[in-house]
Amino acid sequence: MIVWLNGTHGVGKTTTGALVRRLIPGSRVLDAEKVGETLMDIEPGLPWTGNFQDWPPWRPLVVETARRVLEYTGGTLVMPMTVLVERYWREISAGLAEHAIPVRHFVLHADRDTLLRRIEEDTVLGPSEFRRAYVEPYAEAARTWLHQEAEVVDTTRLTPAQAARRIAEAVARG
Q: Residues 95, 96, 97, 103: what is their CA dihedral angle, to the nearest 10 degrees?
């Protein structure tokens, strides 16, 4: 099974994902961003589009990587990864379905003010223009498709540990 943690950059997916992993026995974290980083390391570089998710190889490589890891290890993969383009999400989820891999899709949500405050006060990465640039695209995706495609966990007033516990409990309930 895959527990996909979606949501905009800076909402807490990586932190929450690490905590979810500790709460679900036999689980591992697979960060699909590493697939994108591998593609970014190709020399000479692929034609830049502004986001590695736009590269056609990224989506099937995410599916294939997850499939191969699950085939090798079994268990659950916790995948913290922002996907705000509906077509990309459908491509990934259809690819996983073709391999009969169940996916629990969660969206970590925070209201705009909370999200911007978290981005500004991030003590690890510091304030991030990259993260701020995705606040509005996330809001548009949330309004138009994303929140209908996933289980929304509003983290506005939750700690990452509380959000992780809610997700792990939802997964355990089935």
A: -140
Q: Which two tokens stand for residue 37?
A: 């980083």
What does the block give as tokens for 50? 């502004």
- The rounded distance, in Å, linking the Cα atoms of 33 and 94 is 19
Instruction: For residue 103, give every residue at least 6 positions away whose Cβ sits within 8 Å of its Cβ, in sequence order, or none.
Output: 1, 2, 3, 4, 93, 96, 97
**Could you report the per-residue pLDDT of 57-67, keeping only the tens digit for each?**
999 999 999 99
Report which of 28, 12, 52 is spatially closest to residue 166, judged by C-alpha positions. Answer: 12
The residue range of the domain holding 122 is 2-173
pLDDT band at 55; cut points 50, 70, 90: very high
pLDDT tens per residue across span 152-167: 999 999 999 999 999 9
Question: Which of the 8 DSSP states describes residue 148?
Answer: G
DSSP, res 108? E
Which phi and psi (to 5°) does residue 158 adopt? -115, 145
Task: Say if CB 59 and CB 91 are below 8 A apart.
Answer: yes
Q: In the 8-state DSSP scheme, what is residue 105? A: E
Segment (H or E) for 123: none
**CATH code of the domain containing 157:** 3.40.50.300
The single residue listed with the structure tokens 């355990």 is 172
Spatial separation of the C-alpha atoms in residues 169 and 163, rounded to whole Å:
10
